[in-house]
Amino acid sequence: MLGATTPAHKRREEFRRLLAGDKIVQFPGAINPINAQIIEQEGFEGVYISGGAFSADQGLPDIGLTTLTEVAEHGRAISRVTNLPTFIDADTGWGEAMNVARTVQEMEDAGIAGMHLEDQVNPKRCGHLDGKEIVSTEEMVKRISAAVRGRRDENFVLCARTDARAGEGLDAAIDRAKAYIDAGADLIFPEAMRDLGEFEKFAKAVDAPILANMTEFGKSELFTTQQLESAGVKLVIYPVTTLRLAMGAIKRGLQVIRKEGTQESLVSTMQTRADLYETIDYSAYNEFDAHVFNFSQEGHQ
User: Fold this and answer.
1) What gap in Å lies between CA 134 and CA 121, rounded to an integer?
2) Does residue 22 have an active-site annotation?
3) What is the domain-level CATH number for residue 49?
4) What SUPFAM superfamilies is this protein classified in (predicted)?
């Protein structure tokens, strides 16, 4: 009630434990706090907070238009309500080295368990679009080094994303990943892999856990967790899935209302009031309120 009961530092420890474990873990993307609560209810290990989904939620394209403070507050709202570790998209870090260090501290203060930085130029593009440009390895190493120096909680996970596969090839992306690990990255995010063999080659080549981005309509096939685990992947994210599910349902529902003049035929597809109240722990708020306002004014003048 009134938020997560597990402190942020414990959630960071849990993220570290998950990455060091033997099994692959799934972090679906949450577009808002109640989405994160449902992810926790359904038994997932963590929550991903996508920059692309947040941009879309604001009616903006994913080209670096959202600011550090906007993203940090969005992450804070989500992290506040879930006991799961939250992992956030920090784009290119919103500036030079000192800005990147501040980004890490803002995310720590927001209760986030980890974040990823990417090696694209600023403003960035969606990782599964063509025409991406990336900075030099040396420039990305500076970003990671600044993030490491800015980190105050050693369990806050720093992930390096490389978009080099598209323009420089797989081997170059692997070489970059190795340099990023040497600079202090805890986790590697190889973006837009083409097949399972590429994931497997990446996992065998680098001395750090790797992440698979299972976004729809992208460069990668939608592999199962069993397939990805066999290829050596440790963490899989579904960045925009819940947004697409929700927006698809909303659009279809609005079309029905417009056509039929009522939502009656849609009610069976909706989250019930009882399920909503259970998800947001409504009864606990009532109980809290009853314990505070438990006095009577009878007999008082």
Assistant:
1) 5
2) no
3) 3.20.20.60
4) Phosphoenolpyruvate/pyruvate domain (SSF51621)
